Known about the structure:
The protein is of the alpha+beta class. Helices cover 21% and strands 38% of the residues. The protein is elongated.
Amino acid sequence: MLSFDYIVTEKSNQQSHIGAYHFKVPMNATKIAIKQGMQKLYGKKVASVNLIRVPAKTRNIGKKVMTKRKRYKKAIVTFVGNEKIEINNTK
């Protein structure tokens, strides 16, 4: 089973009102696997799944230390009829 981490941003909160939710998914996840996983996890019908590959970025910490943020894949899942789902924001 795939792991889904809910992404909390201003944009994702606005789109949750129209039934679209943002999740961080594994890089090898496909649209079909995400759709089946969401339907099994939440018990609601999925209308569409859009995938975005977010590239890695380098950033400076202090004067000389450079770190790299890993790349990841983001899925925007829209449920049929703008249905709402309950998201647990606790870890």
